[in-house]
Amino acid sequence: MLRRHRIIIIILSISFLLTSCCRMEKSADENQGNGSSQEEPYTFYVRCLDEVRLEGRLAEDFYITNTGNLWGLYYINDENQLYGYRIDSDMQSGAENDNAHPGMQLIAEDVVHVDCGGLSNFTVFLTTEGKLYGIGHTNSGVLLSDGEGYLEEPMLLMDEVKYALCGEKNIVVLKNDCSVWTWGTMVDDEGREYAENVPSPVKILENAVMISGKKDSFAALHKDGTVWVWGNNTYDKCGVAGEGVIKEPVCVASDVTAVWMGKLQANVLCTDWEKWCHYGYDGGFRDNLVIKKEDGSLWTCGKNIEDSENGREKEGIAYTHIFVPCRIEQAPYIAYDGLNTYQSVLEEYERAQEDETYTPEQWKKVDYTFSFYKEENELCYSLKDLTDDGTEELILAFKEEGKYIVKAIYAYDEGTIVTVENHMENVEHELYGQGIIKSIWYGGSGRMYYTFERLQKNSGLKELLVEVYDIPGDWGFGDEEGMKYYKCAGAKLDDEEEIMEEEFFNIMNQYGTGLLDLEWHLVDGFWDSEEAAY
After folding, report:
1. Would strands 42-46 and 317-330 be described as parallel, antiparallel, or unpaired?
2. Distance (Å, rounded) from C-alpha 10 to C-alpha 280?
3. pTM above 0.85, yes or no
4. Which has fewest Cβ within 10 Å: 94, 194, 206, 488?
5. pLDDT digits (tens, 9 = 90+) for 2-39
6. What is residue 342's three-state secondary structure?
7. How far is CA 280 from CA 64, 244, 284, in A?
8. Dist. CA 417–CA 409, nearest whole Å
9. Closest listed residue to residue 378, CA positions, set 419, 350, 415, 420
10. Beta bridge partners of 16
11. Helices of type H across 183-312
């Protein structure tokens, strides 16, 4: 059964991918800003400057102590104990377990660093003795284990390790002797493999003091201050001109003291897996490389970096392989102020609807399917305190033939704006008392799916209450008449049960009562076209 309970990523994130080095055709100096037309430094906003660790110089300065992915959350406490919340270890192994969400459990002692895979469900951690261990799914071969299965007990992967990073389906390691090793499979933005699988560790570089990277691009800082990069070079984010893949490390910068390419996390404790996934602590900027020069200045290349002489453009997105000055600033705390709180959200939605130059890539920042609705219907908003917590949520809807179809909901939480719902195509939302949200998905051939969730107070998080659906009795091309009714009983896609029509409507009536009366206003005048800067 198709489920629509998706994890929404927060608009503002802390992470960012970065990379650069010296090239064989062009000197490092030529690649580092000479002739750049960038007048003002490009600004990266992060939630907390401490997380970026701008003063770090060595790999040990960037140990990750709190990280997660779609399958788990991990943190290392002050006593070097690694705790983990693994949502589906039993599901992955095929075991039956009524307690599929056991909470944080102790995994190992004497741990200094931890990181998680992306597309593949695996995790690695480093001990104080320099031993690198792995747990999780073995089917990608990244845990150096044959066959398919799920490793509950940590498996030793390598000795004498100083630092380690996980990509989508690969691992990059910096050893104590300053050599860099890697194994696994490299994949692109769509999850497609673009290199042969490396089943065992292979040395790719020597004399490195620091490595950085996440997902599909990586960088290493050499002892001599040069930066070497490899991986996916979309938007020239590796500091090399031309799209494609860099299979062997290439030097793109010199006189460097630190490099960032992907999120480098600090001791910002989060032990709530749902909140981690919802707020996207481990997502963020994936199309930029940032380096710190010996004079303390910061430089970047890649996506959204404009350069009139050396820049390029694709689908309205500017980018360049030339390093330009940048700065990293802490995002300002947003104080709750009614409608003014959501000014930036309303600006972007209005612009997406009205700006003729708005590109598909920019639409995706608002919603992947926004373009299907932008020209046909009036975009409206309403403010309503859905959970009686003293702060109003922003509700966005399209007016279609006099009816308001709710498509998106935003909430205020701890100084930030977070996405509660944002499904534009084939999904509608109805709002009820006590923060209950009913999502309706229109399937093909007369199928209808209904998901009831409750929005939590002072948060953008939701609690799943129940999911039910109905389908025509002859949907499977049989001779039956009428409708059939089902309820999703658990987290597995096939964990459902057929129910009677009476129970179906009892569920619908239990949660779908007290439809809220909302006051709607046209989204108009929030976006100033003359001051727009893209």
Report:
1. parallel
2. 6
3. no
4. 94
5. 333 332 222 233 233 233 334 333 435 556 554 454 46
6. helix
7. 16, 27, 7
8. 10
9. 350
10. 285
11. 273-279
